[in-house]
Specification:
The complex is a heterodimer of chains A (99) and B (220). Chain A has three helices and no strands. Chain A is mainly alpha-helical and 99 residues long. Chain A has two domains: 62 residues; 31 residues. In chain A, helix 1 runs antiparallel to helix 2. In chain A, 23% of the residues are buried. Chain B has a single domain, classed as Four Helix Bundle (Hemerythrin (Met), subunit A). Chain B is 74% helix and 0% strand. The model of chain B has no long low-confidence stretch (mean pLDDT 92). Classes of the chains: A mainly alpha (99), B mainly alpha (220). Chains A and B meet through helix 1, helix 2 and helix 3 of A and helix 1, helix 3 and helix 6 of B.
């Protein structure tokens, strides 16, 4: 873990970027993009979350082990969502006798 | 500092099972991240429920989202982002051993956390008045999908607000420690680790805001 102290300018830049993304997500939500509204909103949220994790939480300066643990948390979340929706989204695909 | 001469006196805050202050900080950071991963899974279960029910009741979800005040949600998003900035600056001040910087930034973080909760209070109050809170006064004419939306809304934001309250208590303790000159360039682990928690709670809100408040803004 490096001991170099990040500059205030860097923190303020990240802060301004986060505000900009917040304004963007509110603006985009007002447009009718059809099925794309949610993916766009999620994309912006993931970008904002990544900015916080990398810069505010300083994970980019952490040890490889800490990085692995941090990434694994979100990877497992992805497994939860993909396997979960793998069930719910495909239930109607096959006709079930008696239903 | 990792290769301090053996004769050098160890830092008073260095626990005997660690080689150096750096290793101690790394271990604490790793430990906090392991905890945060459990928090990701904790909130993840509720987000999974959100995903399943939103997929089942897409229209009720949009309609229920209309009842939420996105302006207040957006205001709270900005308040939390600002509190994350002051938190990061507090950690930076601790790294530099700047007492004033720590006190100012930690106080601002606590203040912004309280602003968030006050705004949340007025939001909840309006929901109680509109009979949108699950319980004895819940509007029985609401369709099922909307009822589920509000149950999830209160569960998610309620648990998030509980995390905020814990965070504010934690920051008050850190502020007291900072006021007693506990932190300097060699030892700022508690500020760093408490900061990780605070930023995590901010991230949860970054996802809650678009998923709960902004659904109803277009096409309706």
């Amino acid at each position: 873990m490096s001991h170099q102290v990040p500059s205030i300018r860097m923190y303020v830049s990240v802060f301004l970027a986060l505000l900009l993304f917040t304004a963007t997500t509110v603006w985009v939500a007002g447009l009718d993009l059809g099925a794309l509204n949610t993916p766009v909103a999620l994309g912006i949220a993931i970008t904002k979350g990544s900015l916080v994790i990398l810069f505010f939480m300083g994970v980019r300066h952490n040890t490889p082990l800490t990085k692995t643990v941090a990434i694994s948390g979100f990877l497992w979340l992805l497994i939860l969502f993909s396997l979960g929706m793998n069930d719910y989204l495909t239930r109607g695909w096959l006709g079930i006798a008696g239903r | 500092m990792s290769n301090a001469a053996p004769t050098a006196k160890p830092h008073p805050k260095l626990q005997p099972h660690f080689h150096s202050m750096e290793q101690q900080l790394e271990a604490s950071t790793l430990g906090m991240w392991v905890f945060l991963v459990t928090e990701v899974m904790f909130f993840g279960g509720m987000f999974m429920a959100y995903l399943v029910y939103r997929n089942m009741y897409p229209h009720a979800w949009v309609e229920a989202s209309h009842e939420l005040n996105w302006q207040l949600g957006g205001l709270n998003t900005m308040v939390l982002i600002m509190s994350s900035l002051t938190m990061a600056l507090a950690v930076r001040a601790a790294m530099l051993g700047q007492k004033r910087g720590q006190l100012v930034n930690l106080s601002l973080t606590i203040l912004l956390g309280c602003v968030f909760l006050v705004v949340k209070f007025f939001e909840y109050k309006a929901k109680f008045e509109h009979h949108l809170v699950p319980g004895p006064h819940f509007d029985p004419t609401l369709e099922q999908g909307m009822q589920i939306f509000f149950s999830l809304y209160f569960m998610l934001t309620g648990v998030h607000a509980a995390h905020m309250i814990i965070g504010i208590v934690m920051m008050t303790i850190i502020l007291t420690m900072a006021a007693r000159d506990s932190f300097n360039a060699e030892y700022y682990t508690p500020v760093e680790v408490a900061g990780l928690y605070w930023h995590f709670v901010d991230i949860v809100w970054i996802f809650l805001f678009p998923l709960l408040y902004l659904l109803g803004r277009h096409g309706a």
